[in-house]
Design brief:
Number of helices: 3
Radius of gyration: 13 Å
Largest sheet: none
Organism: Nocardiopsis rhodophaea
Transmembrane segments: 6-24, 31-50, 56-75
Keywords: Membrane, Transmembrane, Transmembrane helix
Shape: globular
Structural class: mainly alpha
Strand content: under 5%
Number of strands: 0
Distance between the termini: 39 Å
Order of helices and strands: HHH
Protein name: GlsB/YeaQ/YmgE family stress response membrane protein
Length: 83
């Protein structure tokens, strides 16, 4: 993978993280940096899951956002338990 591919994957991951946080109702008690990291991870995981079924960009985006939303919910439960 070239450097431009890595940079674009990181940018997409940041957007996916923000969208995942927006999908979850209510106020999340996790820092924005954690949301962005979860978005980057969710973009890779969601892309891999969606690739099993199809490469249609809209389906891939929806799966990535759903994975990011699930990660935000899980991280919020774990983050607030520690405080």
């Amino acid at each position: 993978m070239e450097i431009t591919g890595i940079i674009s994957a990181l940018v997409v991951g940041l957007i996916i993280g923000a969208l995942g946080r927006l999908v979850v109702p209510g106020k999340q008690a996790i820092p924005i940096w954690l949301t962005l990291i979860l978005g980057i991870i969710a973009a890779f995981i969601g892309g891999a899951i969606a690739a099993v079924f199809t490469t249609f960009w809209l389906f891939v985006l929806i799966v990535q956002v759903l994975v990011a939303a699930a990660a935000v919910v899980l991280a919020e439960k774990l983050y607030t338990r520690g405080t």
